[in-house]
Prior knowledge:
The chain is an alpha/beta fold. The protein has five helices and four strands, in the order βαβαββααα. The two termini are 20 Å apart.
Amino acid sequence: MKIDGKIGLYKRKIGKIFKIAEKVLGEDFENVYLSVNFVSDEKIRGLNREFRKIDKVTDVLSFPNLQKKAEESLKNFQSDADFDTNMLFLGDVVISKNVAKTQAREFGHSMKREVCFLALHGLLHLLGYDHIEKDDEKIMNKLQDEILLRAGV
């Protein structure tokens, strides 16, 4: 998986987590890419207001490029890949760096752990997972816990 974006020192660790997610989910991320970026509180609040009609700062937002459901394979979307590069764009994940710092302190863990969790959470949303219904939330939480545990985060 190719990760574009400005996430500084965290890019390598996020890449490792996404590699583990690939195995846990039974997907093939070889010709897949997405962007992950840190944004200001003001920017994420504006995006949250514009796209979710919620006028407040949040920790992470995902903007999927595909209409994928969790149970569908990425192979079903290969026809959406770029003709020239054969790369499939999953979408964008934006993370408020300030909210991540605050949450890391509140939860008593490292900034690295919080950023990795938020990036993974965003990736799962791009892949069709959500936490609106209790059963779906349990599935998503279980996946996040397993992937982060395997990554040693």
